[in-house]
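Hi F.,

I've been meaning to write this up properly since the lab meeting, where we talked about keeping a consistent format for the predictions we share between groups. The idea is simple: the sequence comes first, exactly as it goes in, then the C-alpha cells exactly as they come out, then a line or two of notes. No screenshots and no reformatting. I'm using this chain as the first example so we have something concrete to point to.
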Amino acid sequence: MCFRREAVGPRTGLPAIPSSPCSLRTVRRTIPAAVEAGVTVGRRALSRIRDRRHGGGSTSSAAYCYAVWMRHLVALSEAGLLARVPTSVAELGPGDSIGVGLAGILSGVRSYVAVDAAVFVRGDPLEPLDELARMIRDRTPIPDVLEMPIGSPPLRSREFPLALIDPEASSPEAVAAIRERPDRFVRYVAPWTMSEIIPPDSVDLLISQAVMEHVSDVEAAYTAMAKWLRKGGIASHQVDFRSHGTALTWNGHWRYSRSVWRVANLRKSGINRLPLSAHLRALEAAGLEVVGHVDQIDTEGIDDGAVHDDWRHLSSADLRTASAWINARRT
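Output, unedited:
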C-alpha cells in the first residue's frame, strides 16, 4: 500500500519565556499557585500511566472520527455555511489517525490533506476505513455525548445528513479504490513549518478539533490557513480553553505567572493559554472574516480576583469561556 507521508523542515520549538522580578505581593500569591502546579504535574503523570494501561487518550477509533467529521459538517450546514460536502478538505492536527479525513472522503470529499506538528499516525493509516464506510452506508446517527464524549460543534439535530452526502462515495467499489491508491485521496504532512506545503487557494474547508489551543504561534497558523482557503472557503475550529490538567480548576492556568507556568507545563501539555478573544483577533488579522462562534460558558473555577497580573487583561467573558466553536470565512 502506498500512503503518502511528507516531512517538511525542522520541528519548531516553543519560544523561551523570559523571567521577571517578583514583588512581595506576587510571591504571596505565587506560592500556592506553585504548589498547585506541582500537584498537577504528578497527577498528569499518573493519568498517562493509566491511559497506557487502559488504552485511553486515543483519537483513532472510527466512532470518534465519524463524530468529529459529522459534527463539523452538520454544524456548518445548520449555520448556512455549507450546502453540500466540500471538494477539498484540510485538517490541522489530526493526531494519531486520519480517520476524520477518511470519513470526509467516504462522504464525497475528493481530496484531503492533514498537517501536524510531528508524525503521530502509526500502523495502518487506513485501519478505520471499513468501519467508517459501514457507518455511513448504514446512515448512522451522529453519536451523542453519552456514546462519544464529543459535544462540539453543537448540533440542533443528530440525524444522518443524507442531503449532504454522496451515497456512491462509501460504496464497496469506492472503498476498494481508496485502498488501492490512497495517495490519490490523502496527503499527510508532518512536521510542517511552512505555509507552502498546501497550494494557495486550494481548500474549501479547513477543520481542527481541540488543536488550536496547542499551537504556539496562532497568528502564523491562521495566516497560513487564509492562504490555503479558496475565496469563500470556511475554517471550522473547535477550541478548548481549559487547563488540560495543569491546574485543579478548569481555568486555573490563568492564575499562574510565566515562571510558575514552566512548572505546571513541565510535561509539555503544550497549551498556549490564549483565550477566545485572542483567537478572534488573530483570525481577523489573518484576513479571515469571523462569521460566528458558539461558546461553552462555565461559571465554576477561579474568578477575576484570582487571575495573575500577567493575565489581568482577560475579560470576564474570556475567563468563563471553556470552549468555543469558531467559524470563519475567507472573503
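Notes:
Confidence is low (pLDDT under 50) at residues 1-31, 37-57.
The first strand starts at residue 5 and ends at 6.

If this format works for you, I'll send the rest the same way.

G.
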